[in-house]
Amino acid sequence: MNKPLRRVAVFCGLLVLALLIRVNYVQFVQADELKNDAHNRRVTINQYASPRGDIIVGDKAITGHTETTGSDFKFKATFKNGAMWAPVTGYASQAFGTSMLEGVNDKILTGDDDRLFFRRTVDILTGKEKQGGDVVTTLSNAAQKAAFEGLGDKKGAVAAIDPQTGAILALASTPSYDPSSFAGNSKTDEKNWVTLKNDKDEPMLNRALRQIYPPGSAFKVVTAAAALENGLYSGIDDKTDSPDPYTLPTTTTDLPNEGNIPCKNATLRVALQYSCNTVFGKIGADLGREKMLAEAKKFGFNDELFVPVRTATSNFSTTMDQPQTALSSIGQFETAATPLQMAMVASAIANDGKLMKPYMVKELLDSNGKAIEQTSPQEYSQPVSSENAAKLQQMMETVVTSGTGKNAQIDGVTVGGKTGTAQNGVNNDKSPYAWFISYAKTDSGSPVAVAVVVEDGLANRGDITGGGLAAPIAKKVMEAVLNK
Amino acid sequence: MSVISNTTTITSVGAPSRRNTELALLVFAVLIPVFAYANVGLAKDGSLPAGLLAYGAGLGTLAGIAHLMVRKFAKYADPLMLPVATLLNGMGLVLIWRLDQEPSLGAAMAPSQLLWSTLGVALFVGVLVFLKDHRILQRYTYISMVVALVLLVLPVFFPGINGAKIWITIPGVGSLQPGEFAKIIITVFFAGYLMVKRDALALASRRFMGLYLPRGRDLGPILVIWAISLLILVFETDLGTSLLFFGLFVIMLYVATERTSWIVFGLLLSAGGAVFVSTFEAHVQDRVQNWLHPLALVNGGVTETAQTMYAFGSGGLFGSGLGQGYSRLIGGIAPKSDYILATVGEELGLTGLMAVLLLYGLLIERGVRTALAARDPFGKLLAIGLSGAFALQVFVVAGGVTGLIPLTGMTMPFLAQGGSSVIANWALVAILLRISDTARRPAPSPAPSPDAEPTQVVRVQ
C-alpha cells in the first residue's frame, strides 16, 4: 500500500502548498489594495489612532484633539472658534471624513505622510508615540475676526489677500457651522451632521472659495483694465464715446443706468465713480468677446485654483455674442466669481498690476516643529501693466473718496474700492448680491485686498447697497490688517 | 547478564526512542505561547498579564504530563506530533485570550478553552494508557459505523446555529459538535471495513474504458456514504463535514485498493453531489457568492468575508503585532472560532500565518509518515485516514477563510475555540502516536534459543 500512500502524501503536500500560495497572494500581492480599501474600517481607525496635528494661525493652534472613549477611534479633533475658522480648517470627523485644509493635509496631520517617514522611524526607535505634523496657515487672526464679526448674522463671505505675496489673510463664510459638533461618531454627532446637511441656509458651504456669485458692477474694474490694456481709452480723464442710455448692439434693448447719474460721455474715472452701466457695457461690446475674455482669464477667471484647497471656477462666458458681452462686462449675464477671485482682481491692481497666486498654507511642520515644506510666493500673471495699474488705482481711489464706496474710507490710509450690486434671478426677483472689493495702500505698498459679498442685499438701489452693506465689512478687515 | 549474539534479521537495537528530542521541542512549544501571551499583555495594557505565570505553569504541566505518559506508554512514538499539537493549542489559547480582551466579541472563552484543552490532554493520556495496541480497534468496525452514523445524524434534531446544524445541545454541558468525534470513529470503521474488502474492491472488477468498474455489491457501501454525505449537506447544511467524510473515504479507498479509478469515481460523485445540492440549497449558494465576490456589500454593509479579507490585507507581511489588530470588526464570536486564522494573519502577518500552516503541514506529514511506517494494513489505513481527515479539515477551513474555496463551517484544529474540536483532535493525535509507537518499536528480542545456550554443567549428586 506504500505507492498510493506516497501519492496521498504528495496530495496532502499540494493542499498545504495551495494554502501557502493563497495566503501569499492575499497578504502580499493583494495586501495594499485590501489594506486601503474604502470599506476597510482600519483606514479610518488609523486616521484617528494618534493625536492629530494642529492647524496654526499666527502662532496659536486653532484645532486640537481630545481622547474619546467607547469608540474604535481614539482621538477626536476639536476646533477653537470653529464657526469662524470653518471655511479654512474644514472638518475632520471620525464618521464623516475630512474637508478643506483638514482634508488636503490629512496625511501630514495624521502623521502618515511619506515625508514624515524619517521622523516616524526615529520616533519608533525612541519609543515616542506617533503624532501628526502641523499646518501653519497664512491667515491673520485679526482679519478673520473682523471679517466673521463684520458679516455677523448676514449671509455672505469675505476673502482677503496680501497683494504682494498672495497670502490669504481672511476667509469667512456665514452662516457657518462648528466642526466640533460632529467630529466624533456618536449619535449626537450624526444628528448634528444631518441637521447641518439639511439646513436650507447651507452653513457648510464655503462661500469664500466654493460659491460663485454674479459680481455685478465690481466686475467693471476688469472691464476698465481691458479698456486700458487694449488701448481703447488711454487717459482716465478723457471723455469716452458713450451714449446714455446705451442700446445693446444688434438689439433694441436699452441698457440703463441706476438712478440719475452723469454717464453720457463720462470719463473712465467718473464712470467708475458712479458705476455707469452704459460706459462699461459699451467698452465690453467695443472690445469684443475675445479681448474681454483674455483679460478676465489673466485675472484668474475660468481657472480652478488650488490654494491648496480647491476653489470653484469663476466664470466668464466663452460663447457669448456681442450684446451678451456688453452685459457680461458689467458683471451680469453668465459672469460669476468667487469672493477669492474678486479679491484677486483688487490685489492685482493694488500690487501694481502683478497678480500673485493666492495660498493659505505657509509651511508644513513635522511633530517636532521642523519645517518639511514651505510655500514661497509665486506670480500668477500680469493682468495690467504698472502704468495702467496706477491709473486703475486712481480710479478706484476716487470711488472711495467721492463715489459709491465712501463707507470704506480709513483715516490716513489710501483706500481704493469698487461696489457692486448684482441682480439675482430672472427679472431680478431674488435679493441682489451686494459686493465690495477694495485694497488699502501705505508707503510700503499694499498690505491687503478684500472682497466682500453679502447675499441678502435688501433692495436694488444701485450701487449704494454694495457700498452700504459690504463696504463697512471690508473697511473693518483692512483696519484689522493695518492695526488701526 | 551476558551479551547475546543475535542471528535474527530484526534487531533489538532499533530506532532511538527520541524522547529527549520531544522534550526539547516541548520546551519551545511551551515557551513560544508564553512569550506570545506576554506580548499581548504588553501590547494591550503595557504590562505583563496577571495570568502569565499560571498560564505558563498550566501549559507546561499539561505538556509535561503528556510527555511523561508518552515516555512510559508509547516510548517509540513520533517525537514531533506532541510538540506541534502543544504549540498549536497553546497559540490557540493565547489568540482566544487576546480576542477575549475585545468586549464586543462576547464573553471570555479562554478559561473554558483551557478546561477543554485539559480534558483533551486527559483523553490523549487515556488513549495512550488504555489503547495498548491500535489493532484492538479493528474489532469494533461495525459498532464504529453505527456510532458514527448516530453522531452524524444527531444534530438534525437540534436547532441550527448560524445557518448550520452541526451542534447538539446538552443542558448543563453546552454545545457539542459530534462531527468532530465522528471524524475519528468513521475512520476506524473505514479502516476496518476496507482492510477486509480491499481485495474484493481491487480485483473483482471489470475493465471498462481503462477504468476498473467495481461490482455492484462492492460499490453499494460507497454509494451509501456518498448519499449520507449529501444528506448531511442538505439537512445540516454543513458543506465542510460532508466534504470531509467523502474525501476521507475516497482517500482510504484509493490507498486500500491501489486503484486510481476510485479517485475518478470519487471526483465524479462529489462533483455531481455538489452541483445537485447547490442548485436548491440557498445556504450553499450564499457561500459560493461570498467566495466569488468577497468584497461585495450586502444590504449596504461589509460582510464577514470582506472583513476577513481586510484583516489579511492589513496584516501584510509582518502583521500588526499580537493584540494590535482589529479582529473585532469581524464581529460575533466568529474571530474566536471560524475566523481565528484571520487574527493570525492580521496580527502575526503572512510570516506568522505561513508558520502556522507549516506546523499543520508538519503534523500531517508525520501522520502520513506513520502510515508509511506502520507494518499492518489496518494501522496504515487508520493512520492515513486520520492524517488525511486532518489535512482535509485544515485545507477546507484555511482555504475557506482565505478565500481559496467557498467557506464551510468547520473549526481550525487546536487553534479555534470549541471544546469538541480540541478534545477530538487530541484523541486523534494520541491514536497516531500509538500507531507510530507500534511502527517504530523494535521487535522484541527473540527468546534465546536453547541450542545457543552454553552447555550447563549438571552436578550429579
Describe the structure.
The complex is a heterodimer of chains A (484) and B (461). Chain A is 39% helix and 17% strand. The mean pLDDT of chain A is 87. Chain A has 18 helices and 18 strands. Helices cover 63% and strands 4% of the residues of chain B. Chain B has 14 helices and six strands. In chain B, a hairpin with a 2-residue loop joins strand 3 and strand 4 (211-214). The longest helix of chain B is centred in the last third of the chain and has 34 residues, at 340-373. At the A-B interface, helix 1, helix 2 and helix 3 of A face helix 8, helix 11, helix 12 and helix 13 of B.
Outline of the structure:
With 484 residues, chain A is of the alpha+beta class. Chain A is built from 18 helices and 18 strands.
How is the topology of this model organized?
The complex is a heterodimer of chains A (484) and B (461).
Chain A: H1 2-29, H2 31-35, H3 41-47, E1 55-57, E2 60-61, E3 63-67, E4 75-79, H4 82-89, E5 92-93, E6 97-98, H5 100-104, H6 106-110, H7 117-126, E7 134-137, H8 141-151, E8 156-161, E9 168-174, H9 187-198, H10 207-210, H11 220-229, E10 246-247, E11 254-255, H12 268-274, H13 277-287, H14 289-299, H15 322-328, H16 339-350, E12 355-356, E13 361-365, E14 371-374, E15 379-381, H17 386-402, E16 414-422, E17 433-442, E18 445-454, H18 464-482
Parallel strand pairs in A: 1-7
Antiparallel strand pairs in A: 1-2, 3-4, 5-6, 7-13, 8-9, 8-18, 10-11, 12-15, 13-14, 16-17, 17-18
Helix pairs in contact in A: 8-18, 11-13, 11-14, 11-17, 12-17, 13-15
Chain B: H1 19-45, H2 52-73, H3 81-100, H4 110-130, H5 141-153, E1 168-170, E2 174-176, H6 178-203, E3 205-208, E4 211-214, H7 216-235, H8 239-257, H9 261-278, H10 282-292, E5 297-298, E6 301-302, H11 304-315, H12 340-373, H13 377-401, H14 419-440
Antiparallel strand pairs in B: 1-2, 3-4, 5-6
Helix pairs in contact in B: 1-2, 1-3, 2-3, 2-4, 3-4, 3-12, 3-14, 4-14, 5-6, 6-8, 6-13, 6-14, 7-8, 7-9, 8-9, 8-13, 11-12, 12-13, 12-14, 13-14
